[in-house]
Structure formats: structure tokens, C-alpha cells
Amino acid sequence: MNAIAKIIEAKINQSNRIVISSHxxxxxxxxxxxxxxxxxxxxxxxxxxxILPKEDIGIKGIPNGFDGIVSPCDYxxxxxxxxxxxxxxxxxKRICDKRIAQWVGNIPTINIDHHGKELFGDVNYVIxxxxxxxxxxxxxxxxxxxxxxxxxxxxxWMAVATDTNCFTGPAVRPSTFHCVAALCDVGVRVxxxxxxxxxxxxxxxFDLKRRAMSSAELWxxxxxATITLTPKDFKETKCIKQDGExxxxxxxxxxxxxxxxxxxxxxxxxxxxxxxxxRSRVGSKVVAKALAEAFGGGGHEHSxxxxxxxNFWENREKVREFxxxxxx
Length: 328
Prior knowledge:
alpha/beta
């Protein structure tokens, strides 16, 4: 993969107008990886624009560089870039804006991702089930000798920390800790960022979490835990999808639970589909990815999701019937 990392640097050097983007409803792996790549490109004497839907980001203002993100509605799509870099995006249809997705196959594209569902780039730096895209960006920087500033280190740290659930996920490996140690050496504000990402939250998000925990159920003699939120819950708390990003971790944390499922409307106003966000423990009879794929979704082996069309409660019952047939 070192050769591919070198090719990425060459592609950047050959380009003048560069755009970086990621998946819809971006999480902090998408945000941090995008901003880190932008800063690395700036260090090479080039400029790049990060395009992400800022209105869909749950915690705003961090990392440094957030204010420079451009929403798709504010970008002039007549200004086609020379190079498109997609980060943390498993397939083109998940790119946050259809106009950006149309660049794939039409202009040079670099795909940096840890899902491994589709190799859609002209250059693909993809390692399936790696801890995070943030760690992949760190690897690219290390191979090419790109300097890591404090802002870059914090962007990557947040990407890795959030996608590994505080460095505890099944995809964590020794290289992950080597990466994090190197970032901390640069001066990452670990306590500050940990507070903002994992401890502090506004009351409305706390209220949504309270409702989520109150909805918890156990299936299959306690081996499966579910959390369910409705459009009413999101409306009354004035929360968005990203405010429930970590709720599957609440369910999988219950003693004895091997499989956790978070049901919620997608979009949260109830006008679309039923979203299931799934977590499983290593050794579980039914892994998260298998359950997601059974309903047209996908993801990592132990962290996956799917969107199901139709009535919310009927969809929930379909999932329950499948789980009971294959797990209980």
C-alpha cells in the first residue's frame, strides 16, 4: 500500500483545483479525515476545498478548520475540480451530494476508505475493516513525509477516537495505538476533545438519550438489545440524526448482549425509511454486517446499518422475526 500512498501524493501534485468530500450525514471520521487531507494538501503548496453538508453535523465548531467547510449549496458546481478525493465513503451513491458523485468516473478520483465495499476511484487506498479512515490518512502522511501540525493531529485523533468508540472497537490494532501516540506527541488536547465528543452534551441531546434508554428492550433471552426512537422523539427534542450516532453503543454495553439494534426514522421526520444501526460482539452468532445485508445494507463485520422502506413498526417487526429465526 506504500506505493499507492506515493501515487496519491503524485496525483495531488499534478492537480490545481482539488475537492475533498465524504458520505451523507458525515460523522467525525469523515470530517476529521477530510480536514486533515485539506491541511496536508495546503502543506504541499496546493489548495483544496472540503465540501460537506454542515447543517447535518451534530457537534459544530471542532476541529479547527470547521468554519472553512463549504456546504454543497454554497459551492459553484460550474467550477469542476481537477481532482476529487473521496474519504470514508463506501460507494459513490453514499457521497453527500449527487452533483459531487457525478464526478466519479468523469474526473480523476482518489478513494480513501476502510469499508471496502466498492473500489470506485482511479486510485484506491482502501483497507477493509481498518480502524478508521483517519488512520489511513495518517499512514499516507507518514509514507510521504507530510508534516503533522497540531490541527491535523486533532482532526485525525477525532476521526480515530470516534470510529473506534474510544479505541475499543474490534478493528483496533497495534498500529492504531502507534498512530494515536504519534498524534499525542504533537500536542492533541485529549481531555478537551474527549469532553466535547464523549462527555459534554446539550440538554436536548441528553433528553434524546434518556428517551432512547427508556425504549430499550431485550430479545432472545437477553442476547439481543434494541433501542427505538420515533419521529416524535426527534421533533420534541429538536435533535438531528447525528445526535443519536452513539446510541447503538448504549445497547451493546448491556451485560450479556451480543447484538444491538437501534431503530429510528430516516430522515428523522418520518418521511422516508426505517434505519437500523447495528453492533455485534466478536463471537456473536449473528454479526452486524450479516443482519444489515439481509435488509439491503452493509458495513463492517461488527458495525453496520441498513435502511428499509415501508411502515416503521412493520419494518421493526420484520427485523425481529429475522433475528428470532437466526439468533434466538
